[in-house]
Structure prediction request, 150 residues.
Amino acid sequence: MFFGEYEHSLDSKNRLTLPSCFREHFEDKQPIKFFMTRGFDQCLALYPSDSWKSELEKLKHNSYFESDVRKFHRLLYSKTSPVTCDRQGRILITDKFKKEAKITKDVTLVGLDNKIEIWDPTLWEKFNEMHHDSFEKIAESLGVTNENLK
Prediction:
């Protein structure tokens, strides 16, 4: 499970070092394999291989005969690439992915349960500012209460 918010920078070869608390989930697996794809709200989403396969299984229940399903599949699959984490805990973020998420050098990593989001820090800050005050209202609309979290 991934959680937390971390500031990092890409190196001169566009490699991103994942925080050690994210890498420790994979101590027994080398090399660490991920799938990188476009996320929602203009970020990148990084899924461990097992989590990605689980997400794809959920998509199989949608009918390809529906126009929106086809569009979504095309947009998702065409913007997805396998990524391998090297022994130093680094992953490569290609120029295409950098452009997709408006990333230059600095990034904010956000752990979200079974995935990691990679944000341009300015976009992440704007997202937080926009939604910070509505946290309780969003939780309420989803039926999430303090009782659910115990």
The first helix runs from residue 20 to 23. The chain has a mean pLDDT of 91. Residues 24 and 89 are 10 Å apart (CA to CA).
